[in-house]
Structures are given as C-alpha cells and as structure tokens.
Amino acid sequence: MCYYNGSRVSRAEYIRLMGIEKELRNLRLNRPAQNGFDYRDWPIIKPLAGGKDFEIKEVHWEYIPSFIHDEHELKEARKMYTWLNAKSENLFVNDKGRPSMFREGALHGRCLFLSSGFYEWRHVPKIGKKGQLLKATEKIPYYITTKRNDEYFFMAGISRVWENVSRGQSADTAAIVTTKANEMMEVIHNAKKRMPTILPESLAIEWLQGNISQRQIEGLGSYQFPVEQMEAWPVSKEFLKLDEPEKEFDYPELPAATW
Question: What are the structural domains of the chain?
C-alpha cells in the first residue's frame, strides 16, 4: 500500500491542469518523504464548479469515516485500522458485500494527491550461511516515480469532511486510491502487489468531473499506469531521516529486479 509519499514541487510556481494554472503561494509542497502514519496534512487538488476548475489545499491524509465521532475514538481505531488508502475494488462495496465506508468520498469527494514519487518495500529472501535461500526475508525500500519532465504527477484520491462531534469542529480528510500492481510493482511491492492509482492528465481531469457514473469511477480507480512510463531504484533503509531520501542506494547482494 502507499503509506510513504514524496513531493519535491520546489521549483514550479504553478500547478497546471485542465489548461488552468494555480499559483502555489503559501503551500508546503517540498516534502521529499512523508510517513503517512504521522497523520499529517498532504497537498491535494479538489474540483470546483463541477470539475471545470480546481483548488489546491493541504488536507488531513487519512479518510476518517462518519462512525468515528472524536479524536479519542480515532486514536483507538488506529490500533486496528488504517484509512490512508482506499482500494479501488472497495470504493462502493466492501469485502463483505455491504455498502463501503468510502462510497461518500467516491461519489462526492474525488480529488488528486500531488506526488513526485512514493516508496514501497521489496521482500527479498535472506541467504543462509551455506548460501541457501531462507524463508525469512529482508525488506528493501524502493523509490518509484514516473518518467516525466514535470516535478509532479497525480494520484487518484477520495475525500470527505469529518465532523468531530465532541469538539464541534470539522476537517477535510482524504485517502489515496490504490489498484492492482502493474508488472513493475508486482516485483517491487511483492508482498501486497498493490500500487497507487496514478492518472495521466486526461484521466485526472475526468476523475474530477462531477457527472461521471459509478462504473466510470470504478474504471478510473482501477487504472494501472503503464510500466514503461515508470522507473524505480533502491534507497537507504534510513531514507526518512535523509535530506535526499530518494537517492539511489547500493545493496551489494541485492538480486536484480526485472520487469
């Protein structure tokens, strides 16, 4: 799942989408590695005027459902659940065939997460003293990005306004939509075989439109970005502590990854 994201929109002065430019004034977009489990804000694009315009704002990265009534319930729920991501297959119906908690966001809160690259772990079998492959694995982090000249790309997201009943306050909350892994991500994220739903600009614009059907939403949410337009490399296990977390790191005994 996509729990570690990066944004290096440091040189761009505007975000461009739909032929419209939005100035990046007062937005903290230079955050090369952020741990989703820190539960901090993340920059997203939200549609305006039914998808004919958009705004960029920082919202709480965690889709908090309506049955969570205050921060105390939320803290307890986090011990068992995480709502940083939403599976595209479960946007409308959950695994038990019941209406999904993400339905509201999928219908009325579609948004885009800005990203320059994200991080996932490849599970590699450890080598025994006699050179044999062991059942135990070592987790090697990878940085994954797109082969674009732009500083950013778009991930499908869903959002909703959460009401903290105890405090009488509300806040925008959001989750990244994920889909089945493409050929590259099957090799890298080989434990879960998932990836964020990365949308090219034409589909990103469609995702924000207010009049699309449930079938269209499900189709866009499950889109797999072409593997030939992506690239990835291993990074340090301490990447969250580094000034350049996306810098390639050499693991001498790491088997080559091919896709």
Answer: 4-241 (3.90.1680.10)
How far is 127 from 164, CA to CA, in rounded Å? Answer: 50
E-state strands within the chain: 4-8, 14-17, 20-23, 30-35, 41-48, 53-61, 85-87, 110-115, 117-127, 133-146, 153-164, 169-180, 194-196, 198-199, 230-234
Q: Position of tokens 């080598």?
A: 127
With cut-offs at 50, 70 and 90, classify the pLDDT of residue 132: low
Query: For residue range 195-211, what is the model confidence (pLDDT) as tens digits?
Result: 999 999 999 999 999 99
Sign of CA dihedral 106, 35, 224, 49: positive
Look up the pTM and report it.
Answer: 0.94
8, 251, 258, 244 alpha-carbon torsion, rounded to 10°: 0
